[in-house]
Amino acid sequence: MTRRMLRVLRTPLGLTTSALLAGALLLAVLAPILWSDEANVVDTDRILAGPSAEHWAGTDNLGRDIFFRVLVATRLSMELALIATAIGVVVGLLLGSAPLLLGRRLGRLVTTAVNIAVAFPGLLLALFFAVIFGVGATGAVLAIGLASAPSFARLVQTLVAGIAGRDFVSAARVAGVGRFRILVRHVLPNIGEPLVVNATIGAGGSLLAFAGLSFLGLGVQAPSYDWGRLLYDGIGMIYLNPAAAFAPGLAVLLAGLAFNLFGESVAKGLGVSVVGGVPLTAEAAEGTSIQDVTQSGGIADGPDAAATELVLDVRDLRVTFPGPSGPIRAVRGVSFSVRRGEAVGVVGESGSGKSLTALAVSQLVDDPGLVEASRLELLGTDLRRGRASAHRHLLGTSLAMVFQDPMTSFNPTRRMGNQLAEVSRHHQGLSRREAFARAVDRLAAVRVPDAERRARQYPHEFSGGMRQRAMIGMGLMGSPSLIIADEPTTALDVTVQQQVLDLLRAIREADDVALVLISHDVTVVGEVCDRVLVMYAGRIVEDLPAAGLRASAQHPYTRALLAAVPDMETDLDRPLAVVPGRPVDPSDTPAGCAFAPRCPLADDRCRAEDPPLAPAADGSRVACWHAGEPLGLTEHTGELIEVDGR
User: Fold this and answer.
1) What mean pLDDT comes out for the span 162-167?
2) Kindly report the CA angle at 442 between 436 and 448, in degrees rounded to 5?
3) What is the CATH T-level fold of the domain 2-281, as seen in this structure?
4) Which residues contact 451 (CB under 8 A, 6 or more apart)?
5) What is the pTM for the complete model shown?
6) Is the domain 307-413+458-642 a CATH 3.40.190.10 member?
């Protein structure tokens, strides 16, 4: 940041505006000390005199030197403008952060109020508040500060919403970090640059607005004076001495330009785009026992000899979002259980509900999403009921979430060791030094070389594979019983992918940790996991052992996914196999089997009745009316897809 600021100062515009702003601030400090006496001397012999060598801008109706009064007025003008800006920034931060701090309902009310206030012109709001708070400097400061707050709040809302969706914020939530701490430690540092730029530009606007209120007689009152007050007095003698109005007007113009142009120069240097006067960032989610409910019935609730080994128990999980034509059912009745030490793979195309299921289990589905389930238990604790603080502690210590993109998994403004240490400090009560030492130990545990030195580095100094290892290390800061890895090998090269998968396997075997691995690659899941869940259109359509995956797959969708993965025996002279058609739109799920429009075996029954997830002869479960029937060689839209015998 320092280097970028130096580049700004080297540009002609940056150098000029910096010098102009520095001169104005220096004048605000020194002018009252140096020239107060000259500005307050009354000379009745030179009342309303014009410009001269002795009085550069002439005199007022008491014979006082207008030029010296303009210089002295710099302090009060700048001081009041900066105070008003500070009020606007603080109130804007509170209002803009409300959706994150207060939750859905109260946050929506605050957002609505801000949107209404933004619709009114700023000067109109300033006049409205000036009438409420009364005439005078104090009332004008409050009026301008509150009038500028809505636009600043709107900017904060936009920036906070963009950062709140990042993986490192989700990781902090999983770790049980509170909303206020997330705002202060993770969100605000990442939106600081555009806020500083906006505040700088806003100071210029406040200066002009304050001068306007004083000019209208609502701001500074005699015997005090600022530039607006001097402009008001100068207008009364404009025909006798135009310089009396020109001098304070020029001071307001130059100071306002200095703030605004300096703000735009800083924005350019920091890579912040200023659109319509509003700065925005350039960037402006061995035999696992799987149980599934069907549409015609549920899972028996009788005693289970292995119930004490259950780590995660999910039944009839549903996730819906409001849509223009009714609720969108993104996850439709998903049920499964994971026991200690078991590995469950979840596969399917994008939009099938894999990641959303993981987010729902981790309590990370944001408003307006609605999560419902007949059972949602982690280590025997019902996550649907009880105190949120207790749930945060449980999730923070017993569940580790490894996100898809290692580039966004960490807060770029904080050192790696401090980010890992936050979990232990928050949940285990360790001191700063003890928590940092544990962070170093966890980095070493996930095979990060020279862990102590690495812990003092920033995320951008780590490679993609190292960041993913560090993300796993963050999950191990507690004593996790379950690791949910959502596409942990995305954007990594093949060698690093294998290293990450080997690391997850080693952790699972060493500490008897349960693993849920989400992936697009069905063959990778087959190698790492004990059982595989295949999801399509928000449902589990097949649940089968990972061993002998190709031979035991019965659902046409599962077999199509397997066929789409090339291997060493793939005929390179033929087109690569693909799954025909397009995935189902969650807002328009067809009646019957959702895969029917893409399935070569579909008949009238498939298009009318949705098949239940029923037990198959080999102990797996499959939701298909034609499970296991041969598909042969089928042509779809000019592309050949061989899904039998692969």
Assistant:
1) 77
2) 110
3) MetI-like fold (1.10.3720)
4) 440, 441, 443, 444
5) 0.63
6) no
